[in-house]
Amino acid sequence: MSATVYYRLSADASLGYRRNGRSQSSPPAFSSNEIPFPISAGCYSAKLNLDAIALRDVTFDYNSPLNPARLNAHYLHDGAGGHTMTTTPQQLYQLQELDHRIDGIDAERNRVEKRLAAGVNRPDLTSEAEHHSARAVAVNANANSRREEGERIRERLIGLESRLYSGNTSRRDLSAIQREVDSSKYQLEQLDELLLELEEEQRTHEAASVAARDQMESAAVEWQSIIETLSGRLTELESDREAATCQRQDMAVTLPQADLQRYDRLRRNKAGSAVALVDNGRVCLACRMTLTSNVLRQLRDRSKQVPCSTCGRILLQQ
Ligand SMILES: [Zn+2]
User: How many structural domains compose the chain?
Assistant: First the structure.
């Protein structure tokens, strides 16, 4: 007779094994092509097809050349869910905690991925920066031509003043030259004031252009750091999920198929929770309804799966 049995293995297993304490050269009804372990690194559940004789006495030798440690495979149940272990509410609750952890990881991963995909509204201040740059250049050109104008006036002023003090200019001419000198000096003062204003205006535009570019630059740097943080979080979540999935797989393989199916069905239909805790010894914490005395009586057997009389979830007495 052959049966599918489930073992929980505490390390990677090789094909060597013992039965009733004696080494066996080759496993009699052992179909090695149906040994799917190791399922993944750190995940040691396996499903083996074995001769049904003396299943509980089978131990495995761990023959890895790297780590020749003895492996114990704990017999859990057969695939038919027949004569062996029953699933306790406590076990299902542990499974549910793992499932909730995986759900939580998936939800967070979703949020992080959405955030990354959405990006940020970074301000595009390129045209503003260019506008201020162009204005600064134009104002500077204007200021330069005013400076040249000032130079010309200064040169003329030197000529006028040398005539004024040459001593051989007529009195009438002197007063005309004096007026011209006064007017040139006035012009120069006006020009100097204008130049100060133009220089100020140029500086303002240059600063505004730099500020616009800085603002874009720092927004880009900030977004880059957000991307790095979010990507790092995604990597963490990925490895958390792998660990939790492994644990889940490890645990699920120990439970009879029928119990697992029932659990999965309940979880689908009951907003993700198949197992509900019982509070104060008489209230289902999922639906908040008081349990009937019949249910409470049944709950005294902690290995039994008792459904809530209102919501149908499997109850776990804390
Ligand atoms: Zn309930």
Answer: 3
